[in-house]
Each structure stands twice: as C-alpha cells, then as structure tokens.
Design goal:
Blueprint lengths: L11 H28 L2 H28 L13 H28 L1
Helix pairs in contact: 2-3
Length: 111
C-alpha cells in the first residue's frame, strides 16, 4: 500500500482557486498598512512585522520539512530541496525580509 502523505500534487488549475483568495486577503491586509506608514502608527506596523515574521518562520519550517524527515538538520540553502519546496523556501525568506523592513520602520518611527 502506498503512503498517501507523499502525494501532494495539486493541479495548477485547482491551485488558482486558492491563489486568488490568498491574493485578496494579502491585499486587504497590506493596503491599511500602507496608510499606517503615512500616518506614522508604529504599533500597527510593529504587529504587522511580527505577523510577517511568524508567517515566514512557519513557511520556512514547512519548506524544510522534507530535509527534517531525512534527518538533514544542518544543511544551508535550498539546494537539496525539490522545486516546490524551493519556491516555498524563497517565499518564506520574502516574508522574513518584509518583516525585517517593517520592524525597522517601526523602530525608526519611535526613535
């Protein structure tokens, strides 16, 4: 019997149905953040930065999960990951980079 958890293939046409609401949710969260950047509300920017950091950390864990299952805990970079997990790896780092930028902006607003 084949193990079902390794068959995570999602057809691209079905994936679009998940991508469009995700883009809408991200847009609804980032548009007020841009207005807060203009107004200078540092607390909201700080919590948005923490949220982006949490999402980035979770995505990074999920992206590296195949390596963890193989017992490869001390590898650097995504070269041993497959294409799907490599994309997830770089998406996680985009979230972490956005979090770093938002936290830096919040820090500069308070000082």
């Amino acid at each position: 019997m084949e193990k079902k958890s390794s068959n995570w293939y999602v057809p691209p046409d079905i994936l679009v149905h998940f991508a469009l609401p995700l883009i809408a949710i991200i847009s609804l969260l980032t548009v007020p953040l841009v207005s807060d950047l203009e107004n200078g509300d540092a607390l909201k920017i700080y919590f948005a930065g923490l949220g982006f950091a949490a999402v980035g950390t979770i995505l990074l864990f999920i992206a590296r999960l195949p390596l963890y299952r193989r017992g490869r805990f001390w590898t650097v970079g995504p070269r041993e990951l497959d294409r799907t997990h490599r994309k997830l790896y770089w998406t996680a780092y985009l979230f972490v980079l956005a979090a770093f930028g938002l936290l830096a902006i919040a820090w500069l607003r308070t000082h």
